[in-house]
Specification:
Helices cover about 30% and strands about 25% of the residues. The chain is of the alpha/beta class and about 240 residues long. It has two domains: about 5-125 and about 210-220, Rossmann fold (3-Layer(aba) Sandwich), CATH 3.40.50.1360; about 135-200, Alpha-Beta Plaits. The strands form three sheets. The chain has a six-stranded mixed β-sheet, sandwiched between helices. It has a four-stranded antiparallel β-sheet with strand order 8-9-7-10, covered by helices on one side. α1 crosses α2 and α2 (about 30-45) packs parallel to α3 (about 60-65). About 40% of the residues are buried.
Length: about 240
Amino acid sequence: MNADELKRAAAAEALKSVESGMALGLGTGSTVRHLVDLLGEEIRSGRLSDIVGVPTSVKTENQAVEVGIPLIELGSRTELNLTIDGADEVAPGLDLIKGLGAALLREKMVAQASRRLIIISDDSKIVSKLGTRVPLPVEVVDWSLEALKTFIESTGAEAQLRLDPSGKAVRSDNGNVFLDARYPVGLEDAVALEGELLHRAGIVDTGLFLGMAEAAVIASPDGVYTLTPESHISLLP
């Protein structure tokens, strides 16, 4: 299977956790696009009913409307039953880096409002330590941006403003921009780093999702398997 087929396989496996009557958080990204498509098919066929979704981005919202998934606002339910989302890195213990899709704030808000969080991914996202494959996205206000960049770099990173292909700053659906922080040897203490970054005024949130996921459904060329926080993660060569 190619990369896209692997993502669809992971989405199909995660969809087995969805039951009629659920309020679902719908993540953002290339793997979640498959989930939304498949969920729409299940609703239209009648195999799933009374489903409502909370999208984590305008892009996911538009797709959900297209495929016929009823949507609600975050907060209109006391608690969501389940959120299914992708990840940019999956480390031992299911600690995650997310946010390269520019939706990390809404993704984290929805995940925190959910009883359960399941991650769907292909095995290219598995790492032994966070920050070794991708930079850490940091969503920030764009006032005094250089001061925030200097602060982030004081934590040991090289920080770069994320730009789109036209050279303009990438903005979240909330209007914020992103400083992507690359740590040369990865994150030595993700918990401490998150606390340090979030304490700084002007930093809205980070792409660290620590201790939040209950499972990660991983698609590999050898098949689909599920990791839990207790699972041993074997790295590919």
